[in-house]
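Human:
Focus on the backbone:
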Amino acid sequence: MLSFGAALGLSALLFHYVFGFAGADASLPLFVFVFLVALGIDYNIFLMTRVREETVTLGTRKGSMVALAATGGVITSAGLVLAATFLVLGTMPLVMFAQIGIAIALGVMLDTMVVRSVLVTALNLDLGRRIWWPSKLDSDAPGDVAHQDSRLVGQR
């Protein structure tokens, strides 16, 4: 939702002050919302699945950092390619497609660079093992999860 709101705000500023569009197409918020939420969930699933895998052996804090290091390049690369793909719509002579392409490209870049790499990881680090509530990873005592419940290691 953060990248959606920021993308709409930034694109509205660009459309008005840079490109001189009279207004935005009425369907713009719907299309931007659908694309950004779907793409954001994909990236989030990719990152958090890796965090969960690493948490079993390393604990939530270290697992979050290892997962970010392992998936960060892939998520960033995918975000750059996807943003460039949608930015191509900005070259079309139809204002509606140009607005949708530019807004989604801005949202994908914000989601890739800020939300996934900074905000989601910061939330993991702040909440620690409570991020896994109500799973077994939450119910363990503070410390390394792998040493406290050997059944979790077998599930990996």
Summary: Helices lie at 2-18, 28-58, 60-87, 95-127, 136-139, 150-155. Confidence is low (pLDDT under 50) at residues 141-153. Residues 106 and 149 are 43 Å apart (CA to CA). The two ends are 32 Å apart (CA to CA).
